[in-house]
Design a protein that fits this description.
heterodimer, A: 588 residues, mainly alpha, Cytochrome C Oxidase, Chain A, two-stranded antiparallel ribbon, 60% helix, B: 275 residues, alpha+beta, Immunoglobulin-like, 2 domains, 5 helices, 11 strands, 38% helix, 21% strand, translocase (chain B), cytochrome-c oxidase (chain B), metal-binding (chain B)
Chain lengths: 588, 275
């Protein structure tokens, strides 16, 4: 018996229009440096992001050393402390996480996963990376200017950020603002590329509802970033004008250290609205790609389709839309109209519903699965624990009145590190262990990978879980030193020392990952084309690593969704997206 | 397999830490017990969710781990189950949100009889102003600030002449009376933060912000700044003394008015120029 809806023995029409051709590199420079191949650009993006991420890791040690042993380390004074806090935060959020998820994984995976030969605008894609690199260099260069980088906190709130009581007010703040503006210019070029490629360059059969959730997550994040970054762009531009030309966009009349300034009539709260109009979507710009990637890791390594795919897609869209209207929850005690509190508390807690549904679906994917505890799977599971933990503390901080005592304390620091620091970083590691065989053709060492996982997962949880309780106690964040404070018991200092020791150990343990990363390039076991026996399209390339143009002579044609695992009647426990349909198959 | 055990241990460890932790909220000294109650409710609801999700996951990891010959089930979706989970989550969110919004409603509704005082922040110290006999604070503006008028009170405003100026960073308040704290910064963002009060609010240059509370416990409390305000941020401290009505009156009558401070400054200047 044959199903009439599935064409039998009919060759599909060609998937490609013949006059499409890519720029072919002619020299080493155009192939590996000024490359227009999304896969090379991806590695450039990720390499730069990880390098600057290592700087941010070292800065976190400066912060932790100061908190544990205040005053004991000679070179850490208040200026260095606040500069470290600022640079650590800004680098991690923007230059590391945003860049690696969109510029790194986005570039590598979107064309391969949707069956395209490359991004639709390869030249613009190349420019995107080089502008990003310049932005990063401008930021880091602030260490070599008089006064050093800005110590305004990553939120850069005026008036403080451009006045003399803040380190780096001479050059650091200017370089920070210029760097952010450049970053946004670079990102916009890349972001347009990701969005248009997903919409325009999918191969035949790859409907939107057959895209892997990784692509959905990155696509939604790129759309959000294109809408949210302009908020930061104007905020940076206006603050730069306030700082350099003496305009008063955000600066009211004020007296600084006894001296009357010429500013008049600006609004510091306006800056906060613009900053968080970007800043909150930013959380999801990082989270949505992580959500997508983790869905795919769990599905592949549990040999089971992701549970509730349609719900997962709609949840990504719902979270994306809602996250554009929740920014005020960062400002409950900012002095804005208190009536905003009602609105932003409702929208913020509403986001918990689609987010929780995603968590349920990840967990339900494990039900009746066939779970392989590979390194990528362990990192995905570690993500679930830290994300659920960090997600529920968001219910405290989003619920306006509960936020009042907790805001500006270490509870906030613990919350956002758990939910948008540790959780996405665990996904990044999982993703690297997962796709490394496709990128290099070799496997990473599983034993080292597991040691890396256990230290990182348990260590990170031990750093940030107890920190919430210091926040409940009332210990404020952004304090260079606590000093003698009546309500802070001596035991809090002990806990800070414990946290610092763990943080140093977890930080150093990352060298295991880097050793594995480089060692496996040469000594890793050959991976073959599809070592995880995964169904999605990137594992079905004719060559591994995929060549320029990804697909050789002919684009793949897609017949089903990317989650055809353990399909009853199938000869193996996975059906590649481009395998011709089975007799009587009803895959989505 | 070990990950399933690790997850159980993470759950057990987290619960034990929560129960045994010596780091708890400071004893409350204001009327905002409802804030603590809402937070306690949130601990229960979210804690239960965390434990349920992670333990269920640990069970799945143990039960459905790969063994030779196992093949996963094929179940793309189960809309009924997903709908139920959505409804249960929505109800849990409403349980958290509803009391939170009710308490927020109280938080932004200042009682009419509240005593109005002003806290002024500057890099990096606190000062305070209480209304004088007319029970009204005079107007202020940064353009009036000079060496003899550090808070920038309007010299021409008759309402401000009897205002009591407290430059010592020590604020006294009577127990049991609601206080509306007006907050004014003359340079950068600050935040009036006393952990025992629970309430806090930013000071924003260019506008006057406020919050209110009723002190309920006699004692001395430290005032911190909770909005990063430059390198001296941790040193920006003040003291809040909650005392009986009588003690408060004694303290208040000892404070200098704006008029007196101008005169004493003027006479001091005169003496200085005579020498």
């Amino acid at each position: 018996m044959t199903d009439a809806s599935v064409p039998q023995n009919v060759a599909p029409p060609p998937a490609e229009v013949p006059d499409v051709d890519l720029y072919h590199a002619h020299s080493w420079i155009t192939k590996y440096v000024f490359s227009q191949d999304a896969k090379v650009i991806a590695i450039q993006y990720a390499g730069t992001a990880i390098t600057v991420g290592i700087l941010a890791l070292v800065l976190s040690w400066v912060i932790r050393l100061q908190l544990a042993f205040p005053g004991a380390i000679p070179f850490i004074d208040a200026n260095v402390y606040y500069q470290s806090v600022t640079m650590h935060g800004m680098i991690m959020v923007v230059y590391m996480l945003t860049a690696i998820f969109l510029g790194g994984f986005g570039n590598y995976l979107i064309p391969l996963m949707v069956g395209a030969r490359d991004m639709v605008f390869p030249y613009v894609n190349m420019l995107s990376y080089w502008v990003y690199l310049i932005a990063t260099l401008v930021l880091v260069s602030s260490y070599f200017f008089p006064g050093g980088p800005t110590g305004a906190g990553w939120t850069l709130y005026p008036p403080q950020s451009i006045l003399t009581g803040t380190p780096g007010h001479e050059y650091g703040i200017i370089l920070m603002l210029v760097s952010l503006i450049l970053f946004i210019v670079g990102f916009t070029m890349g972001g347009l590329n990701y969005v248009v490629t997903v919409l325009q360059a999918r191969t035949r059969g790859m409907t939107l509802m057959r895209m892997p959730l990784t692509v959905w997550g990155i696509f939604a994040a790129a759309v959000m970033a294109l809408l949210a970054f302009p908020g930061l762009f104007v905020a940076c531009l206006m603050l730069l004008l306030d700082r350099t030309l003496g305009t008063s966009f955000f600066m009211p009349s004020l007296v600084e250290l006894g001296e009357r300034k010429d500013y008049v009539g600006g609004s510091p709260i306006l800056f906060q609205h613009l900053f968080w109009f970007f800043g909150h979507p930013e959380v999801y710009i990082v989270a949505l790609p992580a959500f997508g990637i983790v869905s795919d890791l769990i599905s592949v390594h549990a040999r089971k389709n992701i549970f509730g795919y349609k719900m997962m897609v709609w949840a990504i869209i719902a979270i994306g839309v809602l996250s554009m209207v929740v920014w005020g929850h960062h400002m409950y005690i900012s002095g804005m109209d208190p009536w905003f509190g009602f609105f932003f508390a409702v929208t913020t807690l509403a986001i918990a519903v689609p987010t929780a549904l995603k968590v349920y679906n990840w967990v339900l994917t494990l039900w009746h699965a066939d779970i392989h505890f590979t390194t990528p799977m362990l990192f995905a599971l570690g993500f679930l624990v830290t994300f659920v933990n960090g997600g529920i503390t968001g219910l405290y901080l989003g619920n306006v009145i509960v936020d009042v005592p907790l805001s500006a304390t270490l509870f906030v620091v613990a919350h956002f590190h758990m939910v948008m620091g540790i959780a996405p970083v665990l996904v990044i590691f999982g993703a690297i262990y997962h796709w490394y065989p496709k990128i290099t053709g070799r496997m990473m060492d599983e034993r080292l990978g597991k040691i890396h996982f256990w230290i990182t997962f348990l260590g990170a949880y031990a750093i940030f879980f107890p920190m919430h309780y210091l926040g409940v106690l009332g210990m404020p964040r952004r304090f260079y030193e606590m000093g003698e404070t009546a309500f802070v018991p001596a035991s809090a200092a002990t806990l800070n020392i414990v946290i610092t020791v763990i943080a140093l150990a977890v930080g150093f343990a990352q060298s295991i990952f880097f050793y594995n990363l480089f060692k496996s390039l040469k000594y890793g076991a050959p991976a073959g084309g599809n070592p995880w026996r995964a169904a999605s399209l990137e594992w079905q390339t004719p060559e591994t690593p995929p060549g320029h143009g990804n697909w050789g002579q002919q684009l793949p044609v897609v017949y089903r969704w990317p989650y055809a695992y353990s399909v009853p009647g199938a000869p193996e426990d996975y059906l590649p997206q481009n395998a011709p349909p089975m007799r009587g198959e009803h895959s989505p | 397999m070990s990950i399933a055990i690790a997850m159980v241990l993470v759950v057990v460890g987290s619960i034990l830490f929560h129960v045994l932790s010596p780091w708890r909220a400071t004893p409350i000294a204001s009327n905002w017990g409802f804030i603590d109650d809402t937070m306690g409710l949130t601990f229960l609801v979210t804690g239960a969710g965390f434990v349920a999700v992670i333990l269920f996951m640990a069970y799945c990891l143990y039960r459905f781990r790969h063994v030779p010959g196992r093949r996963a089930a094929y179940e793309p979706e189960n809309q009924k189950l997903e709908a139920w989970l959505g409804i249960v989550t929505t109800i849990a969110v409403i349980i958290l949100l509803a009391p939170g919004l009710l308490v927020w409603g109280q938080f932004i509704t200042v009682p009419k009889e509240a005593m109005v005082i002003e806290a002024v922040g500057v890099q990096w110290s606190w000062s305070f102003r209480l209304p004088g006999a007319d029970n009204q604070l005079g107007s202020s503006d940064v353009r009036y600030i000079d060496t003899t008028n550090s808070m920038g009170l309007s010299p021409a405003d008759p309402k401000g002449q009897d205002d009591l100026l407290i430059a010592s960073s020590e604020l006294h308040l009577p127990i049991g009376k609601p206080v509306k704290v007006l907050l004014r910064s003359i340079d950068v963002l600050h935040d009036f933060y006393v952990p025992e009060i629970r309430a806090k609010m930013d000071l924003v240059p260019g506008v006057v912000t406020y919050f209110w509370f009723t002190p309920t416990k006699i004692g001395e409390y430290e005032i911190l700044c909770a909005a990063y305000c430059g390198t001296g941020h941790p040193q920006m401290r003040g003291k809040m003394v909650i005392e009986s009505e009588a003690d408060f009156e004694t303290w208040r009558t000892a404070q200098q008015t704006f008029e007196q401070s101008r005169k004493s400054d003027a006479s001091r200047d005169k003496r200085a120029s005579a020498q």
